[in-house]
Amino acid sequence: MRFKKQSDYALRVLMYLATVQGDSTTIKEIAQSFGISQNHLMKVVQSLRQSGFVKTQRGNKGGIRLGQPAEQIKIGQVLRKVGEQNELAECFIQVGQCKIDRICQLKPALAKANDAFFEVLDGYSLADILGSPRAMSDLLRLGTRV
Amino acid sequence: MRFKKQSDYALRVLMYLATVQGDSTTIKEIAQSFGISQNHLMKVVQSLRQSGFVKTQRGNKGGIRLGQPAEQIKIGQVLRKVGEQNELAECFIQVGQCKIDRICQLKPALAKANDAFFEVLDGYSLADILGSPRAMSDLLRLGTRV
């Protein structure tokens, strides 16, 4: 199984912001640092802002920063909020499309498995998955920023 | 997150075979019953055969049938065997592609969540998710076959 690209990128944005530790940054900087598309990130940042995980400010001194301390941001919550819902099989997306949808017991089993998955990830904060901010900063080549 | 189509189809094949209760059937029949591509199913059945979940026999009286009783086939095992591996994020597929791969702690967290997911599904057998073979047979319009 695989996440949507959006989830992968959301976690990278948050890890970047946790690495710069309170400094404001831009979508362009994050996109360049990871070598990913700026357009993709815009949608992701909008979703993170709506959920309160990041704050954005327009203008010269503007930019993006974390909306909550990294220790309080739970990975399971982030993934659910950026749209990583349970779409494991066709029946979760197009109800009634599969002929056996009405009586098939796979759906509740998958829903339980899905809950167990996110429960594990709610046990990890952004700070937990970041590891060392200094080592992360070196890898992202943030230079003197941290 | 989403399964590969292959996993979805593998479970449908097994549910069909459990519904016909020991009778031999063909890929064509299963494909027609679910309204899905015969070509897709061929690859899936090959994978199920290699893992012992189905038996195939060539010839006039040939066809496909379950390789084990439905009560012994665990859903988690099926999904793992047909290739539903942990490919949640890019880093599971292309190691070293992401800049922070070396120190990022997301990967072990996702691996634990993935284990929890399959552990739940190992608690369900094919018989469990089938529900009533008679009701399933009606929905699949198997007529007098069961």
From TrEMBL, chains A, B:
Q: Signal peptide position in this chain?
A: none
GO terms under cellular component: cytosol
Question: PROSITE patterns per the record?
Answer: HTH_RRF2_2
Entry keywords, A to Z: DNA-binding
List, alphabetically, the InterPro entries matched. Answer: Tscrpt_reg_Rrf2, WH-like_DNA-bd_sf, WH_DNA-bd_sf
The answer to whether the entry has keyword DNA-binding is: yes
Q: Note the Gene3D superfamilies from the entry.
A: Winged helix-like DNA-binding domain superfamily/Winged helix DNA-binding domain
> Which Pfam families does its entry note?
Rrf2
What's one GO MF term for it? DNA-binding transcription factor activity
Protein's UniProt name: BadM/Rrf2 family transcriptional regulator
